């Protein structure tokens, strides 16, 4: 079954269609390479449109460029802002029901893009044998998911994504999966992934190392590598059993759908006078649009003599030394812990407390401990945990709940950055409230970054502390399996004022 990619180009070459054998492509895979602006996405769109009626397709889309295929060709757009367990189930359904889909990753950071893509590809690969139907799996910007070297992402995410890409290109054929990978630079793509492709479409390239590697893959001489610099946008040198037995230049044809963000076009500058433009830019900003600025961390103040004595007393108690200690305050350990928690709650009552530096909050806490004449004070790590409990417990009505005590025990074993998120979700579940939105989780944690809040949720789900459920309206609920409680469904994109977590 042949599709037309475009026309054969080149001086002295008769105008003829450039064809691709889709059935052969399923067995031999495809690698597309070209610098930014060479027309890779246009080529992939042309290939997908021409073959959409004949074979199931999946597009791993890191920029959201291919969601427009849904309106014209019926692809299902999958938003990757889901739990990894949910993505595994959906991938199995995609294979079972032979649905063409676009996995849209644009709202995730690079680390989570790699985790989501790796999880989805592995689920496709591990599908039951009766669901091994032919499928084209297109991965745009493949160097993100199969990097040649480690980058700024976590090693766990890199291994997951690279392993999934290797399975796709090396072992996917027998499972009906035909990998089509596109990359800006061959040098950034893992060699064991690129080497499994038998078909090549090489676009405009300027770096010597990429030109030489492209020429080697096509079986060209080194002196012929310079030809890749002369290619026009939308032109590719083709070679492979599904394309042609000898290298030819292909000019890609027109497409029916358009990306959401195309190539920028020059437009005339506005005709307003300089003074008018200045007034437009410097007009007063409405108060409701002004975003609060995170204060810079305050410098840590030098500890007082009282603080030093209290710290020495604490270390002596820990080491079992018989040296004389600071006079005791007459409280039991449980009573002292209750006092500490009460003072921590007093510290976070201030509306600006989430955005104050931790050092400043700790100094405030130490002052309150001295006023209460407590003989010892918790060190900074212990105070940090008390602060998380105080922030999540709200007005304290849930403190006596057995569910809350269990949540505190589980949170104690979590990393510092995930403790507060877990406790906020537990508080919402105990109160019978909706799952906190990304904005609520971010602001209660002292940040404006909703991406950071989502990353903490993903970490908790990956570790098994929570399970996220999404209904057909996109509402989100969180299950805490170790405690046996669940939040109500809430809008994950709700602003801070809606779906309140707990009383302020």
UniProtKB/TrEMBL annotation:
Q: Which residues form the AAA+ ATPase domain?
A: 26-215
Q: Which Pfam families match?
A: DUF87
Q: Could you name the domain of life of the organism this protein comes from?
A: Bacteria
User: Quick one: signal sequence residues?
Assistant: none
Name the UniProt record assigns to this protein = AAA+ ATPase domain-containing protein
Lineage, top ranks:
Bacteria, Pseudomonadati, Pseudomonadota, Alphaproteobacteria, Hyphomicrobiales
